[in-house]
Amino acid sequence: MTKFSELELSPSLLKSVKRMGFEEATPIQAKTIPLSLQGKDIIGQAQTGTGKTAAFGIPLIEKIDPKNPHIQGIIIAPTRELAIQVSEELYKIGYDARARVLAVYGGQDIQRQIKALKKGPQIIVGTPGRILDHINRRTLKLDQVHTLILDEADEMLNMGFIDDIEAILSSVPEDRQTLLFSATMPDPIRRIAERFMKNPETIKVKTKEMTVPLIEQYFVKVYEREKFDVLSRLIDVQSPELAIVFGRTKRRVDELANALNLRGYIAEGIHGDLSQAKRISVLRKFKEGKVDVLVATDVAARGLDISGVTHVYNYDIPQDPESYVHRIGRTGRAGKEGMAITFVSPREMGYLRTVEQTTKKRMMPMRPPSIDEAFEGQQRVSMERINEILNEGNLDQYVTVAKELLEGNDPLLVIAAALKLMTKEPDNTPVHITEERPLPMKKDFQRSSKKDSQKSSYRRGKQSSSSYGNKNRKPKRAERRP
Ligand code: ADP
Ligand code: MG
């Protein structure tokens, strides 16, 4: 464990870091910061949520000369949201050092950006296209840049920015420090590193170290057509504070968000087709707790720092284990506990096993809750509310009418009526969710599937609709109640 105070940072930086509530450096920070302060080029590979922004942000701020009004550091990020997020974090890290940070991204008025660029920012955070645009207009002068950072490099590759990045890299003085951060290292990214970096030091924080032990991981075996009912019931039983539901496609995200709203949840969807303004407003509402359930595609949620998420529901199991790790990384952050629940259709069990091999952790099977359990879960939410109000006290003004209610009524029924008034009852409003085909069956799984289903016959039992609502069915030992 490395404390920030052990990292030989200047007092103003330590002050800002302390204000941010950071005490101990995360593993990637502890390894990156000293090397970066020495001026070395670094390739940092670590999963989302491991604190990569501060890993490059702290040494960058340390290197900024506050008296020099020219751009000294440039950070390239794949999306507007990430650029904004990184610039906000850098602003905080550089607050006491008085570093001036500016975010530039597509979709924002370019004249306004040009004006802001004239005010002497020292650090630019931007998306590839817009940075290149400014370079071509000569509104972004990079001759004094001593540090260049590529954040989420693999994501930029996925989004087709590789040529833009090469163009930007070629316009920044060669005599510079280059840092590259990425969750994965596909070949084209490796090649960029070889071409544009000088003897880079690779720092890799292994996935194993990172599948946060605080995340409880479950899977629910469920047929496609049952998924939505199972999702609503899980939400009712678990009453998550903040939940993210991941869907495989944009259509799925839209349909799920609509369907959830129809059933009385406050949900919003986020995916690449939404306007920038819409995406930012959805995220803000989610962070402020005005939206309970965020429905997202992988790309839309990738890299975003959304803290306080208690539950991640994978409505569709992701095709590759990397995405799984990214998705569940949305929860259990900064030492908080989280729960991840993955829906798997019977044919997709092979994908589940692949994920488990990558994370080196088994997911526990979870039985879908029954309608009764969902209903009871919601009543418990009301009960907790009542207990809170009882604790707050201040009920004098209600006592007269309360007495009147109790006259001639069974007190038990009076309470039951009050609960009924407060509780979200099971909602069967019909919804439409287009069925998606399960992922193609994995060959290696076909061979073992028979053995598997014999071993765990209870899983088959769970699928029959008669097991819904059967309160007397005793769960087998291995099963967990939601
Ligand atoms: P990444 O870029 O690896 O996905 P971020 O840089 O977005 O991760 O950090 C994730 C969250 O963790 C942010 O809210 C950030 O403020 C917080 N964080 C980063 N470093 C620390 C630390 N050393 N201690 C506590 N929280 C941290
Ligand atoms: Mg990041």
Give the strand line-up of the largest sheet.
5-6-4-7-8-3-9
The CATH topology assignment of the largest domain is Rossmann fold
The low-confidence parts are 445-481
Small ligands present: adenosine-5'-diphosphate, magnesium ion
Distance between the termini: 34 Å
Largest sheet: 7 strands, parallel
CATH superfamily of the largest domain: P-loop containing nucleotide triphosphate hydrolases
Cα Rg: 26 Å
Helical segment count: 21
- CATH class type of the largest domain: Alpha Beta
Q: Bin the strand percentage.
A: 5-15%
The global form is: globular
The strand count comes to: 16
Helix content: 40-55%
Number of domains: 2
InterPro entries: DEAD/DEAH_box_helicase_dom (IPR011545), DEAD/DEAH_RhlB (IPR044742), DEAD_box_RNA_helicases (IPR050547), DEAD_helicase_CshA (IPR030880), Helicase_ATP-bd (IPR014001), Helicase_C-like (IPR001650), P-loop_NTPase (IPR027417), RNA-helicase_DEAD-box_CS (IPR000629)
Family: Belongs to the DEAD box helicase family. CshA subfamily.
GO cellular component, one term: ribosome
EC number: 3.6.4.13
Quick overview of this protein structure:
It catalyses: ATP + H2O = ADP + phosphate + H(+). The protein is α/β, with parallel strands linked by helices.
Chart the SSEs and their pairings.
Blueprint: E1 2-3, H1 11-19, E2 24-25, H2 27-37, E3 42-45, H3 52-63, E4 73-76, H4 80-93, E5 101-104, H5 110-117, E6 123-126, H6 128-137, E7 147-150, H7 153-158, H8 162-171, E8 177-182, H9 187-196, E9 201-204, H10 207-210, E10 215-221, H11 227-238, E11 243-246, H12 250-262, E12 267-270, H13 276-287, E13 293-296, H14 298-301, E14 311-314, H15 321-328, E15 338-344, H16 349-359, E16 364-365, H17 371-392, H18 396-406, H19 411-422, H20 443-455, H21 457-463
Parallel strand pairs: 3-8, 3-9, 4-6, 4-7, 5-6, 7-8, 10-15, 10-16, 11-13, 11-14, 12-13, 14-15
Antiparallel strand pairs: 1-2
The protein binds adenosine-5'-diphosphate (ADP) and magnesium ion.
Adenosine-5'-diphosphate binds next to strand 2 and helix 3.
